[in-house]
């Protein structure tokens, strides 16, 4: 007699359930593998979206130079009414998770931290003031000048007025127009540093440094940073690019 091989409705339902479970398990395994590979192949993690990284990266309050330097100017005059600005810089920070370095705390010319080096002739002191994620701090005097012959004259240095500088966001936009890659790289921004002073003296100049998000600087070990790619010198009053230097 021939054997009846037709499946009952119950058998068909069980087979479909087994097939569905197999497909879902395959999708799950693939997604986990893909996530792991993405996590391993990007040495910055700036754009990685994995179960391990989402929600774990610290969030900071950012500010452009106009916002931060208003607060820092008040802190400077509170420290000493005759305080003068020597230099200021805006920068992001690093965050490490699962051996991946994330560069965070910056966005289009706004930063989580602004620090300024200032001087008071009446106090005969230099100190550092910091705006960090909305909080302002004034450090203990960095240097106290005694008038010894071996000292350089602190009053003969270049000083800058933060109020005369265009916003850091405008400087950032000028750098983007000049070739800064805001998709693959990140930046720090400063004025009064030795590089700009050597080239432009007392002139108000923003100095934007471009770093890679995807390639670490092998020479830096303690605080990882991206490979240094280029410097943009930007007129601090007009926003005009003065020159760019590739590293």
Could you walk me through the main structural features you see in this protein, from its secondary elements to its overall organization?
The protein is an alpha+beta fold and 247 residues long. The protein has helices at 9-41, 65-79, 168-177, 194-200; strands at 84-91, 93-97, 100-104, 106-107, 110-111, 113-120, 125-132, 135-138, 143-144, 185-191, 205-216, 226-235, 241-246. It has one domain (65-246). It contains four helices and 13 strands. The strands form three sheets. Strands 1, 6, 7, 8, 9, 10, 11, 12 and 13 form a nine-stranded antiparallel beta sheet that branches. The chain has a two-stranded antiparallel sheet with strand order 2-3. Strands 4-5 form a two-stranded antiparallel sheet. The longest helix is centred in the first third of the chain and has 33 residues, at 9-41.
Secondary-structure-based class equals alpha+beta
Q: How many E-type strands?
A: 13
Distance between the termini: 87 Å
Tally of structural domains: 1
- What best-fitting shape do the alpha-carbon axes yield? globular
Order of helices and strands: HHEEEEEEEEEHEHEEE
Strand content: 25-35%
- If helices are DSSP runs of H or I spanning 4 or more residues, what is the number of helices? 4
Profile the largest sheet: 9 strands, antiparallel
Helix content, binned percent: 25-40%
If you compute it from the alpha carbons, what radius of gyration comes out, rounded to the nearest whole angstrom? 27 Å
Mean pLDDT equals: 82
Residue windows where pLDDT falls under 50 for at least 5 positions = 1-5, 21-54
């Amino acid at each position: 007699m021939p054997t009846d091989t037709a499946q009952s409705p119950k058998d068909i339902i069980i087979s479909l359930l087994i097939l569905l479970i197999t497909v879902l398990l395959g999708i799950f395994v693939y997604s986990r593998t893909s996530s792991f590979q993405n996590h391993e192949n990007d040495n910055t993690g700036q754009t990685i979206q994995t179960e391990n990284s989402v929600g774990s990266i610290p969030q900071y309050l950012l500010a452009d130079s106009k916002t931060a330097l208003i607060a820092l100017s008040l802190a400077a005059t509170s420290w000493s009414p005759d305080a003068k600005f020597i230099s200021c810089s805006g920068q992001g920070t690093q965050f490490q998770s699962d051996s991946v370095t994330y560069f965070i705390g910056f966005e289009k010319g706004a930063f989580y931290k602004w620090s300024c080096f200032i001087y008071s002739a009446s106090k005969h002191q230099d100190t550092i003031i910091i705006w960090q994620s909305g909080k302002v701090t004034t450090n203990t005097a960095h240097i106290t000048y005694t008038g010894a012959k071996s000292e350089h004259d602190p009053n003969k240095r270049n000083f800058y007025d933060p109020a005369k500088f265009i916003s850091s966001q405008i400087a950032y936009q000028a750098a983007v127009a000049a070739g800064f890659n805001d998709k693959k790289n990140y930046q720090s921004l400063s004025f009064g540093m030795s590089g700009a002073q050597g080239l432009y003296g007392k002139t108000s100049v923003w100095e934007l440094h471009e770093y890679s998000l995807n390639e670490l600087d092998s020479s830096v070990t303690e605080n990882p940073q991206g490979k240094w790619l280029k410097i943009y010198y930007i007129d601090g009053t007009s926003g005009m690019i003065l020159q760019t230097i590739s590293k």
